[in-house]
Amino acid sequence: MELTWPLLAALLLPIFSFLLLLSSTKNSGKGAIHRRLPPGPTVVPVLGNLLWVRNHGIDILRAMRRLHARHGPMLTLRMGSRLEVTVSDRRLAHAALVERGAAMADRPGFASRDLLGLNAATISTSRYGPLWRLFRRNFVAEVANPARLRLFAPARAAVLAELIDKLRLRSEDGGEDQEQGTILETFQYAMFRLLVAMCFGERLGERAVRDIAAAQRDLLMYSSTKVRVFAFLPAVTTRLFRGRLRAMIAMRQRLKGMYMPLIHARMERKKKLAGAVPPSAEPPHQDDETTTTLPHSYVDTLLDIRLDGGRPLTEDEMIALCSEFLNGGTDTTSTAMQWIMAELVKNPAIQDKLHDEIQSTMASTGSDNHISEEDVQHAMPYLRAVVLEGLRRHPPGHMVLPHAAAEDMELGGYVIPKGTTVNFMVADMGMDERAWDRPGEFTPERFMPGGDGEGVDITGTREIRMMPFGAGRRICPGLNVATLHLEYFVANLVRAFEWRGVEGEEVDVDGEKAEFTIVMAKPLRARIVPRAAASQCYS
């Protein structure tokens, strides 16, 4: 039987006193710094704060909010031997992430990553330096750049058409399609299918996409729930929890077995286009369900990367970057889409106003088909307001990826020691009553002219009032991709269907649950009624 938390604590209890004495001795010469740490709850040797043991998922975030209410906008926590400071004040966040950006642009190092074999660098995990700059610059220039994004437009249109078909089938079945699952799962599949095409340059069949998605999600959920234990004395816990290590290795190998044929196919295509393969050679196919080969893909850009010494990326490095690409844009975007559609169901007047803008835009452009990407980016201010309000009120992540202090730095009257993990309470900043009028209400008008959110800078460069994508030098490089996808899909979902509440059921936009992102505790259910004018537009 695998060890549980109480049993682990009991096994470690005999060394608590020794470690406490050792800690006191080591810190005796650092009293000036430690006395100025932000306040926090009681610490238990080895385990740190019992917050991590007693709470899971959304309960951890709720407990942290209670601690912030008690101790103030800066809070010191310990997870095992790791020191972590969390910041809930938007002005302090701006001071740390923007004004002192270089000092807060690093990522914490985790001893457990090496023990787990998770040391392949990605954009999100790389330490602040040349490698991170190389990976980030490649993504921004070759994927997020508007010119490059347009190359993926056929894939977006195809995924949209398939999503509309699935939702239309759901509406014909009375809203209960057991094969499709929940509305959120339908959104997740659509986003993952799109990102698979963008990543590997192939529009694969549904079975292949679902197999990759299952392997990716299994590894993601396992690593986010079962690996936390290795933060506590990794030299010990990696021996006590060997089964978890073996399970992770098996999951990574399963994913690698799915990725590498797709990557090799792209390598062969690249050689053919360069003239290294006879022109008569047939282009590689994954299976009979492959329908379209895209002219550009994320893998293409990874094949061109050269690291120090001119070497190409290894297979493991490419697997890590592809996994990051798929993880980063699937759950975050689909979660945000579910929250936005839930608010539109709950607020039909807002949905009607958005539909009016859609109809007006299509009339002015002469379009009788779906809303184009050009329309959503240049001619639909209320659509953008709806998406911004959704991201403010329901950010998919309530905290950003952890930062690390590159030097001892003062913030808010306290000292954050070099190497400390620092995180920021994203959702709290979007709900700050000092920055927003009635922040608990879903009011897109606040982002229109004259509203309290007019001209808000979601990058946080000028000031931080909301930061769904983070802020500073480590802001999410996929910001433009995510906002385009949200605006494009939300507009066309409202164009194609009227989203109504299910009779006798209240749409709960306050209940939250922590998965990879913060999702609705009670998944969205809605009556999806096709609009007559749009019935023939998405075939």
UniProtKB/TrEMBL annotation:
Record's subcellular location: Membrane
Keyword Transport in annotation: no
Top-level division of the source organism's lineage: Eukaryota
Cofactor field: heme
GO CC terms of this entry: membrane
Residues given in the record as heme binding sites: C476
Membrane topology, as annotated: Single-pass membrane protein
Region listing for Disordered, in residue ranges: 273-293
Assigned keywords, A-Z: Heme, Iron, Membrane, Metal-binding, Monooxygenase, Oxidoreductase, Signal, Transmembrane, Transmembrane helix
Main location: membrane
Gene Ontology MF term list: heme binding; iron ion binding; oxidoreductase activity, acting on paired donors, with incorporation or reduction of molecular oxygen, NAD(P)H as one donor, and incorporation of one atom of oxygen
Keyword Transmembrane helix: yes
Signal peptide: 1-17
UniProt cross-references to Pfam families, sorted A to Z: p450
Similarity comment: Belongs to the cytochrome P450 family.
Protein name: Cytochrome P450
Annotated organism of origin: Digitaria exilis
